[in-house]
Amino acid sequence: MVSIVKRIPFFIAFIVSLCISQSVEAQIRIKNAADTLLDMDTVDEFAISTSFITLGYVMLYFCVSGLLEYTNPTPKTPKRMKWIKKEIRLGVFALIADVTYAGLWLWLVDRHTPYYGYYNTHEFTAWSLLMNVLTYLFVFDTWFYWTHRFLHQKWWWKNVHVVHHKFMKPSAFAQDAVHPFEAVFQGPMGHHLVSLVYPMHPIVMAVMGAGTAIYASAAHDGRAGDLNDHNKHHTFMNVNFGLYWGVWDYICGTRYDAKKRPAYKKIQEEYEKLTPNQDLIDGGVDALECVDKQD
């Protein structure tokens, strides 16, 4: 009896999806869901749409990062919890910056971009989907890598990027623990850039944006989801700049190499001189010990 009850939601979902699949009107509504949900012709629509955007950002940040931290086996010591609270405080301000930029872009800029409404007159095929995904991954990863390198220049490091690098043993919440400028620069700015170079479907954009946020949280969690070994970047500062994978790092010679550890440590010391912060230095010692055990 219990097993039957558990299956009821799946049966309901199947029936609903079956009915929807038979309705051309429903298919059209689903296809244009992002356009209709985020209509911004009036101030009221802007406020409603921005509320949806805010809800999405907040749910992704707190639910995903919270779940990752809850399942993370790292001991929840007072020191770690103190740092997580700092990450969350910074993350809230970063979310405000992200939502503001994204809302204003969709309200004032999006409709004037070259490919706006492209799929209202063009068929969205499986090939379109594949090209949308590949284009997004390449363009955003390229943008992220080079803007990340830019943020490591002396002035930008001292005044912007160091906020994020204070967390040398980050938790998933560190994903958004950044300076508000960096939050926009490496987040929604790169995200919306993709739609300027290729006709992207709004639903694909939404899914890829959400997926990237989840991926970035997992990368800062430092476990299996850290496919690009981002924790090494927080430890040694000048390696593994990429987002999704290490392609640009391999091309530009910034991929982490255990044989170059002495050189990395010298670079780390130079960064620490630029940021005379005892918390950062203490965290660096802990992080180095952790990496030593891994190597």
Overview of the molecule:
This protein has one domain. It is 72% helix and 0% strand. The chain contains 14 helices and no strands. The chain has helices spanning 2-21, 24-31, 33-37, 43-71, 78-109, 126-151, 154-165, 180-185, 188-197, 202-221, 230-236, 247-252, 261-274, 278-294. It is globular.
Secondary-structure map:
Blueprint: H1 2-21, H2 24-31, H3 33-37, H4 43-71, H5 78-109, H6 126-151, H7 154-165, H8 180-185, H9 188-197, H10 202-221, H11 230-236, H12 247-252, H13 261-274, H14 278-294
Helix pairs in contact: 4-5, 4-10, 6-9, 11-14
Helix/strand structural class: mainly alpha
Measured as a percent range, the helix fraction is: over 70%
Let me know the number of strands. Answer: 0
First-residue to last-residue Cα separation: 52 Å
Q: Unreliable runs, pLDDT <50, ≥5 residues?
A: 1-6, 18-30, 278-295
Rg over CA atoms, rounded to whole Å, is: 21 Å
Rough outline: globular
Q: What is the subunit organization of this protein?
A: single chain
Number of domains: 1
Order of helices and strands: HHHHHHHHHHHHHH
The overall pLDDT average reads 80
How would you summarize what this structure contains?
This protein is mainly α and 295 residues long.
List keywords for this structure.
295 residues; disordered C terminus; globular
